[in-house]
Every structure is written in structure tokens, then in C-alpha cells.
Predict the structure.
Amino acid sequence: MKNRANKIANRINSLAGINLFENTRKIKYVEARSLLNFILKRYEKMTLYQIRDFYALNGKVQNHATIIHSIKNFKIFKKYSPELLEWLNIISDDINGYDNQEKRELIKLKLNYISNQDVDELALLIDAMAKKELEVE
């Protein structure tokens, strides 16, 4: 699990051009850490204490309350910093390791950012899938 967490943190560091574990409260770092915490909690199913320990291993002090606050603020941060959603998409492109519930959550998150044309195409696709399911029965 720590190996995947390290890969995710390194990917965010690379995308953001920062070191997540630097001791600063600059907004760019706070938002990037929020993304990391969101991914580690939601998709990697790490506990708050495991996330805290992961930060400690990397030289950054975080407590569970800070991590909770960070995860809750991710919704706000992604609204005003669209690159966070882009980074989430890049990191989550490989969702093969996720179960169906996690895939549903990821799709819900992404649905808020698709165009009307994409919604129309998805509706047609879902309708075709439902018709195909009825034909099979």
C-alpha cells in the first residue's frame, strides 16, 4: 500500500512541480496535499492514521484532523483549481485495480465536468445497453 501511495505522491509532485512534503502552507501545496489525501482515503482505502503515518515517513507532520479537513476541502479546491481534476484524471486513468463501487464514485466525480454533448452521447449509450440487456433476457 505504501508503495502505491509513494507512486501517487511522486506523480502529484511531478504534475504540480512541488514537493508535497515541504513544510509550507502555500495554497498550491495545500491543494496538492488535498488531492493526495482524497485519493489515498477514497481510492486506496487508507485509514486516516495510515495517511498520517505515510506523511511522517516522508518527513511531514500531519494529524488526522488536518487530513479530514483537507479531504473535505478537496471539493472546494477542485472547483477553483481545475488542474486538480485534471491531475485526478491522470492519476486515476488506471482504474482497473478498483472495484465497481470505486469506479462508480470516480464516474460520479467526473460527471460534473462533462459537456452537454457528452451527456447526450452517454444517454444514448446507456439506452442501447439497456435494450441489449432486454434482448439477452
Q: What stands out?
A: DSSP finds seven helices and no strands in the chain. The mean pLDDT is 87.
